[in-house]
Amino acid sequence: MKKKLLSAVLSATMVASMLAGCGSSEPAQTTTEEKQATTTEAKTEVKEDAPAAEVKADTTEAAATGKVYYLNFKPEQAQAWEALAAKYTEETGVEVAVQTAASGTYESTLKSEIAKTDAPTLFQVNGPIGLATWSDYCYDLSGSDVYAELKSDDFALKEGDAVKGIAYVVETYGIIYNADILNTYFGKDYSVVKSVEEINSFEQLKAVADSIQANADDLGVKGAFTSAGMDSSSDWRFKTHLANLPIYYEYQADGIGATDAIKGTYLDNYKAIWDLYITDATCAPTVLSSKTGEDATAEFALGEAVFYQNGTWAYGDLSANGMADESLGMLPIYIGAEGEENQGLCTGSENYWCVNKNAAEEDIQATLDFMKWVVTSEAGCTSLSNEMGFVCPFKAFDNYPASNPLINIANDYVANGKKPVAWTFTTMPSEEWKNGVGSALLEYAQGTGEWDAVQTAFVDGWATEYTAANN
């Protein structure tokens, strides 16, 4: 299953199809930029004297008496989900509650909520690793309408013939850059390259970043890169998303899609890119423990930094902070691996919907109807595509192209024959493994730990956590 999912992401043809559909983070097992916990219930009752025509005919009788409780993982889309839930309730009279877990707490929140009488009817897992924990709670979606709407069976999480999860978003990340500042830099006598196309390797990226850092005052910036904050709203960018690169290249070298014992073949490369992030930056590495995801977003939006590691989901925040579409670009994350000049952006999914099979029958039906409406209706597709900025692997989304310029950039990389980097971080053995790597990265950055501790957390920690998870 793991290999199947990973190979699907690596197919340039498939990725082109995925990205062409609609606009484009990570469940509890990981994160995206996360804010405060939000709980909103959208409740609208159908009036007793309302004409029957006012109630949507495509909602079944079972669903009309049921309700939906969605435990949402993505905090940056919390308000959009709440609005969409309210819209559905307005149209159908079906109660939809949306709760969004706080920063880094999805797994613990799900464990707490699933044990309650009114447990979530709809929740998320990050892929095969997450499914291993929650499989016993997952309703078989093989006969559902939402499963029938998938563009490809490769977006389904299966156990045998049972469909236990459905990917609802495909996302892309890399190094977002400020095109305005970078173009100004290209015109300077001290610039080491004259176009963004020349930045196609770690060597070139480092040369540019070093040059920008050395001339920060002249360019009016504080640093080449935004702060690499290591609090829970930001550390996922490095202990998960950045760590994906050495895992991906090791898997490529060994011809595998998962492992019970990572070797750490590319950890020197991981160190090189991490060193670049924390030295050519807006702040000293000694203060990273206090820096947040919001800090990085603000630094980039205010023009204090040229580079910002993040993904297509960051567009909403950047746009809301005043950045124009034409000011945004995205580069692959280069780490010095052989052949990286042909590398594209990191593209995949770890957002899989699962329906709670232990919910009441009428609530299961209500949830299935809600999911179908979300991926087929104009209101649902428009919200996911434009308001949430998702690329969605469902048939109807071909009619609702995204307005997110970062998605168009991702399309361009595929069209130009660049090989997407698969989201191999879905094979990381546990959240505890990520936390161990993150802690070691921070200690190293602060000067209170050695890089050897990062290697130990990465390699030995992987074996320990894999064993714990599989015994």
* Low-confidence runs of at least 5 consecutive residues: 1-63
CATH superfamily of the largest domain: Periplasmic binding protein-like II
Secondary structure class reads alpha+beta
CATH architectural type of the largest domain: 3-Layer(aba) Sandwich
Average of per-residue pLDDT values: 87
Number of domains: 2
> How many helical elements?
20
**Beta content:** 5-15%
User: Helix fraction?
Assistant: 40-55%
CA(first)-CA(last) distance:
19 Å
Jot down its keywords.
471 residues, alpha+beta, D-Maltodextrin-Binding Protein, domain 2, six-stranded mixed sheet, four-stranded antiparallel sheet, 43% helix, 14% strand, disordered N terminus
Question: What does the model show?
Answer:
The longest helix has 20 residues, at 451-470. The strands form three sheets. Strands 7, 8, 9, 10, 11 and 13 form a six-stranded mixed beta sheet that branches. The protein has a four-stranded antiparallel beta sheet with strand order 4-12-6-5. The protein has a three-stranded mixed beta sheet with strand order 1-3-2. α11 (236-242) crosses α19 (431-446) and α19 (431-446) runs antiparallel to α20. The protein has helices at residues 2-10, 12-21, 61-64, 78-92, 106-114, 128-134, 145-148, 179-186, 202-214, 216-219, 236-242, 244-254, 267-279, 293-301, 315-320, 361-376, 378-387, 405-415, 431-446, 451-470, and strands at 38-42, 67-72, 95-100, 122-125, 156-159, 162-167, 171-178, 223-225, 305-311, 328-331, 343-348, 352-355, 419-422. It folds into two domains: 23-170 and 349-400, D-Maltodextrin-Binding Protein, domain 2, CATH 3.40.190; 173-345 and 419-470, Periplasmic binding protein-like II (D-Maltodextrin-Binding Protein, domain 2, 3-Layer(aba) Sandwich). It is α+β, with helices and mostly antiparallel strands. The two termini are 19 Å apart.
